[in-house]
Design brief:
about 0% strand, mainly alpha, 5 helices, about 150 residues
């Protein structure tokens, strides 16, 4: 497959970074909303907090996750990086699967059922750590290239 030129690659990378930043922002918003839910004593405020989380989970979380995954795959396929050529990309793919499980699916169901706060908080903290790890791996690109079998 032919690789893309510099300008389209930079636009694709910009979109990928924007979607990824929105994902991280959503996770931080969930943390703030869950802390708020734990601190309020008013039933209406609690209901509004969980409703806000639910709306975010159905909209922004889903859209940013789809956008980040699609642009990430396109960046891998359309550039020299490839999907499985580097260990750091494989690690990002594994972490992305965790982030997808925690983000659109986990947060949606936890807020929909208004489950236990420790379950929601644990998921949010793991989500933030996972997304932050994705950023760190993207910057430092550890673990190098896989050895090719002849």
């Amino acid at each position: 497959m032919e690789k893309i030129s510099v300008a389209p690659r930079k636009w694709l990378l910009t979109l990928h970074l924007l979607f990824s930043a929105i994902m991280l922002g959503n996770a931080v918003a969930f943390l703030i909303l869950s802390l708020t839910a734990a601190a309020v004593h008013d039933a209406e405020a609690l209901k509004a907090t969980y409703a806000s989380m639910h709306v975010l989970a159905r909209t922004s979380v889903r859209a940013s996750t789809i956008g980040a995954v699609v642009t990430g795959v396109l960046l891998s396929v359309l550039t020299r990086w490839g999907l499985f050529r580097f260990y750091w990309i494989i690690a990002k793919e594994a972490l992305a699967i965790v982030a997808i499980g925690l983000g659109p699916f986990g947060m949606y169901f936890w807020t929909l059922k208004a489950g236990s706060s420790w379950q929601l908080w644990s998921g949010i903290v793991v989500q933030i750590l996972t997304l932050a790890s994705l950023f760190v791996i993207s910057v430092f690109k550890p673990w190098g290239q896989r050895q090719r079998k002849n």
